[in-house]
Amino acid sequence: VHGGVPSVEAAGNMGKTKARRFRPPAFAPAGSLSDQVAGAEAGEDEGSSPAAELLEKLQHPNADMREFACANISKMLQQQQTIPAFVQRDVVRRLGPLLLDPSVVVRETAAGALRNLSACGGFEVCNDMVTKDIMTPLVALLKETSVET
């Protein structure tokens, strides 16, 4: 409200609330998640790093937990300094099977994480993805989705 006159935004949204899309909270027990993953590269205990913890959650029986892990991995893979920690922990082989997960949202978030890895990781990471046979589950996913539509 400026000068007693309601703004266009306020008038157009009277009594309406925008539905909020579910976004899982960032997994950061202490400090920045990307800082912790980068620290893991420097020789921290493998079992205690956020990268290791998120990769572990990819095997969780609950689809929401697998989606949460994929979403956080996807977000972190947008930062180049975190990519080596995930590549060292075999992120490609752990995400690949999730492209065929029974849960559609898990498949989508796993595909998004692999997309971010390929887009932000450069040629060597993409070459490594092919070497680690990411194409087999990807082609299976594409065949499955082309039949559904």
TrEMBL record:
Task: Tell me the protein's name.
Answer: Condensin complex subunit 1 C-terminal domain-containing protein
- Give the residue ranges for region: Disordered: 1-50
What Pfam families does this protein map onto? Arm
This entry's Gene Ontology molecular function terms read:
unfolded protein binding
InterPro entries reported in the protein's UniProt record: ARM-like, ARM-type_fold, Armadillo, SYO1-like
Quote the PANTHER family the UniProt record gives.
Answer: HEAT REPEAT-CONTAINING PROTEIN 3
Entry similarity comment = Belongs to the nuclear import and ribosome assembly adapter family.
Its ancestry begins with:
Eukaryota, Metazoa, Chordata, Craniata, Vertebrata
